[in-house]
């Protein structure tokens, strides 16, 4: 049994440990981005007094003539076609709802769904009309900032280590053991309550700690980064991954592997 | 279904984040963070963040204990901690925690109250201990007791002398040297270990998700020598007397290790002296 206490250590700025060549142009709301009026305004900017000013805190991205500011930490904005994972808090009551849905979905359940439409006030409407979506059974939920989930073609990933992961665009990540029979109700509405095997549990706990360490080091989350992080963490016992030094070490290794893969 | 997953995991000694049933999360302890108090400490246990400040003031001793000083506890659950604490929601939890702290410090051996007495029946030191919950991430009682112990360790009470005038009226003189102060001995200050019963086993240091499972928990206050000073049951479930005994034994074991780690870290911090970088709140 382990009990570890330590004195707090000030966080090192990330750019020191990375040795990046190009510095990101970081802005805060109210900062001038440029006084050149030839650019088109993108998200996170507005025009004022002949200058382009940032409205969110983040890094400036420039694509030819379009300038936008990508925020570092935002509330989730829904887009049509996004996958989200969420917990049911309230529901509309109507006669048919009472009869049919109660049997399947209760308040407090976790579901995965796709965004169908976005209203002007920001509310989104979801649908679970495909068998891929539906109630989520046994597994672990990790809540992260939505800006760290990379936009990809698919958000359902089956990792070779034995667990599957759903990366919700709203920042809710669901890790669950890969069901053996894929043709059956993968999703559906009937929850499987049998005990999960110890080996699967270890994989899931390790993945959860890896995701938490990637998030603390502000790295983007997608299937390759999670997988590399998992492999880098294998030599350490699962609970050690939460220690700050080991977390930094693993994430540094993951970052290097990703850079090698790109370059 | 998530609760089922958590419960099954605990039975097999593998919790959601990979810890065993008796493992604590990593703890960050820092003392002397608030400069205008007599002593202060900040403890971070996972997502739980607690700040404790101790102020020493002079006052009259209680009537039934004329030779001793005393401690007053006040717990403030900040609205930032969790959304439930908005407005006056945190008051109930605050009074519950304060009552628990009063009980564990209510016996003679925790803190040497006689050393807080200046002149019997007239003057004594009153230590006002203020606990501020900055963030709530599960396992509040343990973190609070660790922070209180660290803050008391850090408390420096100025040395005073009582002078008799010609007419017989007494005058209190504060020593001029700011470093001339008395320190409290926190050898016997107990720490609380919260054991939560989940399924057939019990876990130490429950996270918020584990606390959402509807079982009961046992708060055991243990001193560094393994002596149990106070015990309390919270929660909705019922506990079998045998499991209470088991949980007590685990509490004693875990408590001893907790105390040794805390003593080590406090001595280490003190030995760093002025070379220590203060991280404070902006690190």
From TrEMBL, chain A:
It is found in: Nucleus. Keywords: Exosome, RNA-binding, rRNA processing. One of its GO terms (biological process) is nuclear polyadenylation-dependent rRNA catabolic process. One of its GO terms (cellular component) is cytoplasmic exosome (RNase complex). GO terms for molecular function: RNA binding. Residues 90-116 form the RRP4 S1 domain. Its main location: nucleus. Residues 139-179 form the K Homology domain. It holds the Pfam family KH_6. Residues 26-63 form the Exosome complex component N-terminal domain. Signal peptide: none annotated. Belongs to the RRP4 family. This is Exosome component 2.
UniProtKB/TrEMBL annotation, chain B:
Keywords: Acetylation, Cytoplasm, Exonuclease, Exosome, Hydrolase, Nuclease, Nucleus, RNA-binding, rRNA processing. Gene3D superfamilies: GHMP Kinase, N-terminal domain. One of its GO terms (molecular function) is RNA binding. GO terms for biological process: rRNA processing. Residues 24-158, 188-253 form the Exoribonuclease phosphorolytic domain. It holds the Pfam family RNase_PH_C. InterPro entries: ExoRNase_PH_dom1 (IPR001247), ExoRNase_PH_dom2 (IPR015847), ExoRNase_PH_dom2_sf (IPR036345), Exosome_comp_Rrp42_subfam (IPR050590), PNPase/RNase_PH_dom_sf (IPR027408), Ribosomal_Su5_D2-typ_SF (IPR020568). One of its GO terms (cellular component) is nucleolus. Component of the RNA exosome core complex (Exo-9), composed of EXOSC1, EXOSC2, EXOSC3, EXOSC4, EXOSC5, EXOSC6, EXOSC7, EXOSC8 and EXOSC9; within the complex interacts with EXOSC2 and EXOSC4. The catalytically inactive RNA exosome core complex (Exo-9) associates with the catalytic subunit EXOSC10/RRP6. Exo-9 may associate with DIS3 to form the nucleolar exosome complex, or DIS3L to form the cytoplasmic exosome complex. Exo-9 is formed by a hexameric base ring consisting of the heterodimers EXOSC4-EXOSC9, EXOSC5-EXOSC8 and EXOSC6-EXOSC7, and a cap ring consisting of EXOSC1, EXOSC2 and EXOSC3. This is Exosome component 7. The lineage of its organism: Eukaryota, Metazoa, Chordata, Craniata, Vertebrata.
């Amino acid at each position: 049994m382990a009990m570890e206490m330590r004195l707090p250590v000030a966080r090192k700025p990330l750019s020191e440990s990375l040795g990046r060549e190009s510095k990101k142009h970081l802005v805060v709301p109210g900062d001038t981005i440029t006084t050149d009026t030839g650019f088109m305004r993108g998200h996170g900017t507005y025009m004022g007094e002949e200058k382009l000013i940032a409205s969110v805190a983040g890094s400036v991205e420039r694509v030819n003539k379009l300038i936008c500011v990508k925020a570092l930490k935002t509330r989730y904005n829904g887009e049509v076609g996004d996958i989200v994972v969420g917990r049911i808090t309230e529901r509309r009551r109507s006669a048919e709802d009472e009869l049919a849905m109660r049997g399947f979905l209760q308040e407090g359940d976790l579901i995965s769904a796709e965004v169908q439409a976005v209203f002007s006030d920001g509310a989104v409407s979801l649908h679970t009309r495909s068998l891929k979506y539906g109630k989520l059974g046994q597994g672990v939920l990790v809540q992260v900032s939505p800006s760290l989930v990379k936009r990809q073609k698919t958000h359902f990933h089956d990792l070779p280590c034995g667990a599957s992961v759903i990366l919700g665009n709203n920042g809710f990540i669901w890790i669950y053991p890969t069901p053996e029979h894929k043709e059956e109700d993968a999703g559906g509405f009937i929850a499987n309550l049998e005990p999960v095997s110890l080996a699967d549990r270890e994989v899931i706990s390790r993945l959860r700690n890896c995701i938490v360490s990637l998030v603390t080091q502000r790295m983007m989350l997608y299937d390759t980064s999670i997988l590399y992080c998992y492999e880098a963490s294998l030599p350490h016992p699962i609970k050690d991954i939460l220690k700050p030094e080991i977390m930094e070490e693993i994430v540094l290794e993951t970052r290097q592997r990703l850079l090698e893969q790109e370059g | 279904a998530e609760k089922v997953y958590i419960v099954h995991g605990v039975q097999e000694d593998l919790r959601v984040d990979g810890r065993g049933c008796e493992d604590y999360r990593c703890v960050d302890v820092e003392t002397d963070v608030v400069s205008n108090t007599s002593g202060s400490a900040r403890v971070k246990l996972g997502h739980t963040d607690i700040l404790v400040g101790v102020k020493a003031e002079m006052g009259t001793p209680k009537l039934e204990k004329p030779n001793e000083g005393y401690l007053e506890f006040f717990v403030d659950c900040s609205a930032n901690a969790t959304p439930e604490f908005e407005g006056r929601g945190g008051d109930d939890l605050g009074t519950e925690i304060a009552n628990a702290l009063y009980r564990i410090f209510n016996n003679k051996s925790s803190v040497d109250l006689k050393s807080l007495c200046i002149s019997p029946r007239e003057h004594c030191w009153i230590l006002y201990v203020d606990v501020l919950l900055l963030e709530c991430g599960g396992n509040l009682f343990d973190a609070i007791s660790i922070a209180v112990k660290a803050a008391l360790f850090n408390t420096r009470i100025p040395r005073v002398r009582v002078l008799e005038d010609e007419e017989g009226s007494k005058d209190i003189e504060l020593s001029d040297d700011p470093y001339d102060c008395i320190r409290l001995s926190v050898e016997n200050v107990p720490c609380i270990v919260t054991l939560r019963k989940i399924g057939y086993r019990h876990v130490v240091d429950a996270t918020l998700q584990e606390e959402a499972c509807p079982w009961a928990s046992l708060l055991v206050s243990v001193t560094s020598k393994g002596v149990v000073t106070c015990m309390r049951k919270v929660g909705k479930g019922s506990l079998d007397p045998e499991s209470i005994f088991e949980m007590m034994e685990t509490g004693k074991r875990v408590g001893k290790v907790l105390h040794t780690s805390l003593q080590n870290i406090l001595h280490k911090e003190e030995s760093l002296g002025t070379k220590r970088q203060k991280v404070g709140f902006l690190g």
